[in-house]
Write a structure and sequence with these properties.
The chain is an all-alpha fold. It has one domain. It is 65% helix and 0% strand. Helix 3 (23-43) runs antiparallel to helix 4. The radius of gyration is 16 Å and the shape is elongated.
């Protein structure tokens, strides 16, 4: 059984080394999406459908933060 550390191992492996990952760029894009979603919620005027969908978007962004942004400090 692999340890928890291997679950979060996002270093390039095998052929992916040639492609590489730009983690910092991904973190910036995640932050941009989060800001846009928050702005949308602020301008929704209380439209429930918009607010509920933005809540879902923000929940997905949180998962991206957990998977990418929060792991940056480990690398």
């Amino acid at each position: 059984m692999k340890g928890l550390v291997s679950i979060f191992d996002i270093r390039p492996q095998g052929d992916k080394m040639a492609e590489g990952y730009n983690i910092k760029e991904m973190v910036e894009k995640i932050q941009t999406i989060k800001e846009a979603a928050t702005e949308l919620q602020d301008t929704s005027g209380g439209i429930q459908a918009v607010d509920r969908n933005v809540d879902r978007i923000l929940a997905s962004i949180k998962m991206l933060e957990i998977n990418i942004s929060d792991v940056v400090g480990i690398l």
